[in-house]
Amino acid sequence: MGGGSSKKITNTTPARTPTTVIKPAPVPTAVPKTTQCLKPCYCPSCYDCTQPDVLTAAGSKYTVPRGLVAFGIQVDNAFAASNKIFDNWYTTFYGTSKDKLEDIIRNRFVPFPGDHLLSGGTFVLNLRDQKHIYTSPSINYASLEHVCPIDTMTIDGTSYDFQVVLQCKQNPADVQKLRSGKPNVCKYLPDADVQWRTDQRSSVVPISLLICAKKR
Predict the structure, then answer these.
(1) 3-state secondary structure (DSSP) of residue 178
(2) What 3-state class would DSSP assign to 14?
(3) Are strands 175-178 and 6-9 parallel, antiparallel or unpaired?
(4) Is pTM beyond 0.90 here?
(5) Which residues, listed in sequence order, are joined to residue 62 by a DSSP beta bridge?
C-alpha cells in the first residue's frame, strides 16, 4: 500500500494502553472439515447471498469478507470496554502472512515495523513506509498479494491456496485516507477511501482471523 493525497479524520478520544494481559487464542494452522466457524462468520453457510455486501461500523462503511471463514481472537476486555471499541471504532482489515500471525495476535495490537515483539524478535515489513500501519475497509484491497501473500496447505489430501487477513477494530483518531494505487480494486467503495494509514500506537486491534482457501 503506497502513498497519495490524504485527508485526516480526527477524534478527541485517545487510545489507552492496556493494563491487563490475557492469554491469546491459539492460531489455527489449518481448517479441517470438522472445524466449526465462529460468529460472526462470512462463509456461505453463515452469510448467504441475500445479505448485504457492505456494512457500517461507527458511521464508516466496510465491505463484507464474503466467503471467508472467521475465527474469533481474544481481545483485552478491559481495554475494549474502556475504549468502547465495538461501539465507537471503525472496522478495517489488515492483510498479512501466516508467519506473522502469532506475533501480531500475541501483541494484541497490529505492531509497527521495527517494533520489539514479545517473542524477542522484531516486526519486519518490506514496505517503503516504516512509520505507519496500513489498513483498509475493503477486504479486496487488504487481500492484495504484496501485503497478503498466497500460501499453500493440504487438508485431507487436498491442496489449497490460502490467504490470511485480520479483521480489526480501528480508532478513528488520526486515520488518513489515501487514494488507491490500484484503480477499481473494490466495486463497493471509491478509490479515494480504500487505503488507510495511521501513526497512532495501540489503535488497530485484531478481533477475527479470516481465512480464504481455494482448491488448487
Answers:
(1) strand
(2) coil
(3) antiparallel
(4) no
(5) 55
Using CA atoms, how far apart are residues 157 and 177, in angstroms rounded to an integer? Answer: 43
**Could you tell me the strand order of the sheet in which 175-178 lies?**
6-9, 175-178, 195-198, 133-135
Look at 160 and 138; give whichever has higher pLDDT: 138
**End-to-end Cα spacing for the chain:** 27
DSSP state of 140: H
CB 204 within 8 A of CB 109: yes
Domain positions in the chain: 6-13+36-215
pLDDT of residue 1: 54
Nearest-5° Cα angle at 186, 97 to 194: 70
Question: Tell me, which fold does domain 6-13+36-215 have in CATH?
Answer: Phosphoenolpyruvate Carboxykinase; domain 3 (3.90.228)
Give the whole-angstrom CA distance, residue 186 versus residue 10: 25
Distance in angstroms (rounded) separating the CA atoms of residues 120 and 36: 33
- Phi–psi pair at 205, nearest 5 degrees: -110, 115
For residue 49, the tally of other CB atoms under 10 A from its CB is 7
Q: Region 23-47: what's the mean pLDDT? A: 54
